[in-house]
Design brief:
2 copies of one chain form a homodimer. Chain A is an alpha/beta fold. In chain A, about 40% of the residues lie in helices and about 20% in strands. Chains A, B: GO terms for molecular function: (R)-citramalate synthase activity; 2-isopropylmalate synthase activity.
């Protein structure tokens, strides 16, 4: 089995992404997550440019890693100085990692116009710096910055930069597509042509996603023969990001039969990605290949039908291979089959041609045309079914609610701007209470739970984790229909409910009361009627 | 210049993405946006499977499109029926578009195991259906579903499906990589091998992003010779989405010198993408190639230094080519320049180093960190500048407002659910009034304009044309911050204002009162003070 070393730069190139910032603690957590996954190398920072990174390398000595090697990153020495006097290079040695990535210029334009030195001096900077680190006892990977643009502009000079790195003692030459502007066929061609000139030398690839081809270009370079792929697990990086290593690993493991994550570890891919996203405080796009929440979610009716007959009809792999899962979504394009399956969970004996089923389907379609969208609100969907099948006895009934907001607010010492009054009937008893909140929905939410907790103590554990509002057909302006989606949790389970109305308060009320009913049903609480 | 036709399926394949749902109004808006961009074909729905899509095609006849052709999408006839009796095919004809996309099965496994018919019958289904549509007067593109998997499983049968489509009269054969599991080199090889067998025939490509290579595979197919690329502008689609046409257009236009958007239209790419995202109520990832907010944002110190010396050092194209802009994140020099330009429009003599300018910049930055986003609310932006520069005298002041909502509502014969009371001071006079509405914002909006119209009759022409709500950081649930954007019109001009608060009523109040002030300033009404 061909072995490819994944080189993750989430903590270095990834931290150059807009909105990404890691504390030393965050970095230690991410290193451990990447080690669990079995990434070969973890580029963890630039100790010469950043004192936080230097601190990280000292603290990292506490870690015991199973699979991964830490790599410190830094530039070549400054022009016209000696390597042994260069503070950045000395910091790299002090960081004490067994592997060091040194980047240097391969594009003549960058040498003359950006760092502003001679072409000869730049080659010496590469050679000297790598020799200095190598002689200190670390293995050096050379990141040939802007290699591809350099090759297209001055091929011989780009090749000379690689030769200088080899003279210095670099063990792997990493070709960097730094601007990210090349299409994959160009990356492949240049990688092939270059490697042909250096038989027996190990090469790596480092791409950026500025034209949306970073993953494909990395794979193209693997086809050309590189042994190391640099990127970041979730694609974080300057501008459009680096090659997404989750996608690269998925392809190498499931399509090309390469070993890139120590055997079985591909099954941990989704969970490790979610862990890293959590530490980075970033939401993974649902559509992310292999690991996204929607990566194996099916919505179109024919797709759902196909997947139920044989998952391979619309899935390129079994989602379990990468630790993800299949999901069948409810929607107007999903068709009858899925709705029937969902109905069967609640009423297993109901025939699909029963008039009740038919009228239920009509009701669901009607609700969707009114703006309900059950794909993110499966708990409300279940309640619709139960109510329609008369398998539902209410836990409470609303007598009335009232929300009162004012500016200035009556109590100037409070953050609240609204009060809500809710009166309900439970088990023949009436109860009324009031609560305040920031905005009318917040006040209503508090008042409703407050008045019901006395009857149903299990509701004390419920809290809202998400609240979304979408104005449907916003051209109706402030009298437009509004769709409210809420997600609730009791610390163990979470569930989603929906409400639609022209009045945002009423839409929120529907979603809030569905949330409470769903929790009570799920807990098996006996419905006590109105 | 080589011409490539872009075929956008945002409204069809895109609506099969999780979380995406379009009303008929949304669809009409997106068609107009895509037409502005100059996309060749817009696949707008499946009239046979979905009554909303059929309604769309009827309504679409009101539209006058400059560049784009509408395409209706549908499947081949059912097995063992006649094409002329198939309700789906009849709906396609009724939709009345000049172009129709018919999809059929090219993978033997799908024929036998999913739609469960014979291999022969499937070929007849393809041929008959296409002939039926062709004879009705529309041009047919054949979407060869699962073509690549089919080619790998049973090459001759996959080719037979294309031959059947040609016999039926299809003018373009679109090879679909439906499961999205192939790497780009495979897509290219199979496209090349296939096209070599059909000299003179037009081919298209349709890819999915399940391994993160959809864009690269589309480009690989263009290199192989296809003339049509199918995808969705923002990459929406089942599972991981379709090929992102913004990226494809960016590459075709700026790298391969192809004409795919009617000449100069590439400069509209970013703004049209943002418009479509707004209608879809989806946030564009900052890192999106070409069009993302971070696509030309530079954060690393060396990158910023390089870009200031020469932007080409770290940018693969000039962001203006695709209507995007450069941003330097550390120094915020770019942000400053843009703000200064805007300030100069209102106060042309203000020096950029004036302390007033500096403190205004600080205020704007503070507001942005609070959740204000002036990109879609330039009128509020102007008001912030005026207030800060003391170039502002108020037209009215709020004494207090109150909103009262209840369920059931006091007046059962009214659609209203809320009343609002607004008391203001204008020219030393107090005035108070009340109004009802569907929801608290609608009531407040009506009451505010009602109380002010007596002082400023010009406000009688003002009405709201759009109202949007976005929950910022929705994990704060019902106590999350909310951003309200409204668009107002007086029948001649339209303008946009914004408000941010944890209380949706207060956020709406800010946006509503800004809208009124902006209108009065624009009309040159003398501010009469409080």
């Amino acid at each position: 089995m061909r072995k490819i070393a994944l080189f993750d730069s989430t903590l270095r190139d990834g931290s150059q992404a807009e909105g990404i910032s890691f504390s030393v603690e965050d970095k230690l957590k991410i290193v451990q997550a990447l080690d669990t996954l079995g990434v070969a190398y973890i580029e963890a920072g630039n100790p010469g440019s950043n004192p936080k990174d230097l601190e990280f390398f000292f603290r990292s000595k506490e870690l015991t890693l199973q699979h991964s090697k830490l790599v410190a990153f830094g530039s070549t020495r400054r022009r016209n100085t000696k390597a042994e006097e260069d503070p950045n290079l000395k910091s790299l040695v002090n960081a004490g990692t067994s592997y060091v990535a040194i980047f240097g210029k391969s594009w003549d334009f960058h040498v003359t116009d950006i760092i502003r030195t001679t072409l000869e001096e730049n080659l010496s900077m590469i050679e000297d710096s790598i020799r200095f680190i190598t002689e200190s006892g670390s293995e050096v990977f050379f990141d040939a910055e802007h290699y591809f643009d350099g090759y297209l502009s001055n091929k011989e000079y780009a090749l000379d930069s690689l030769r200088a790195a080899l003279r210095g003692g670099a063990t792997t030459l990493v070709l960097c597509e730094t601007r990210g502007g090349l299409i994959s066929s160009e990356v492949k061609r240049i990688t092939q042509e270059t490697m042909a000139l250096f038989p027996g030398v190990d090469f790596g690839i480092h791409t950026h996603d500025d034209v949306g081809c970073a993953v494909a270009s990395s794979i193209a370079a693997v086809e050309a023969g590189v042994v190391q792929v640099q990127g970041t697990l979730l694609g974080f990086g300057e501008r459009c990001g680096n090659a997404n290593l989750a996608s690269v690993a998925g392809i190498l493991g499931t399509k090309l039969g390469c070993d890139c994550l120590c055997g079985e570890n591909l099954e941990r891919l989704t969970s490790v990605c979610r862990r890293v996203a959590e530490v980075a405080n970033v939401r993974i796009a649902g559509s992310s290949p292999f690991i996204g929440k929607s990566a194996f979610a099916h919505k179109g009716g024919m797709h759902i039908d196909g997947v139920q007959k044989n998952p391979l009809s619309f899935e390129h792999i079994d989602p379990m291979e990468v630790g993800n899962e299949r999901r069948l979504l409810m929607s107007e394009v999903a068709g009858r089959a899925l709705m029937l399956k969902r109905i069967a969970r609640i009423a297993p004996n109901l025939d699909k041609d029963d008039p009740v089923t038919v009228s239920l389907m009509d009701e669901l379609k009607h609700l969707e045309s009114e703006g309900y969208q059950f794909e993110g609100a499966e708990s409300s969907f279940d309640l619709v079914i139960r109510r329609h099948l008369k398998m539902y006895r209410p836990y409470f009934s609303l007598v009335h609610y009232q929300t009162i907001g004012s500016s200035p607010y009556a109590d100037p010492h409070s953050d609240a701007t609204h009060a809500a009054v809710v009166k309900v009937k439970v088990k023949g008893e009436s109860a009324i209470t009031a609560a305040e909140g920031e905005g009318p929905v917040n006040a209503l939410d508090r008042a409703l739970r407050k008045v019901l907790e006395q009857f149903y103590p299990t509701l004390k554990s419920v809290y809202l984790t998400d609240y979304k509002v979408r104005v449907l057909d916003s051209a109706g302006a402030t009298a437009s229909k509004v769709r409210v989606l809420i997600e609730s949790s009791d610390g163990k389970q979470s569930w989603s409910t929906i409400g639609v109305s022209k009045d945002i308060i009423e839409a929120s009320w529907f979603a809030l009361s569905d949330s409470i009913e769903y929790k009570l049903i799920a807990d098996g609480v006996e419905p006590s009627g109105e």
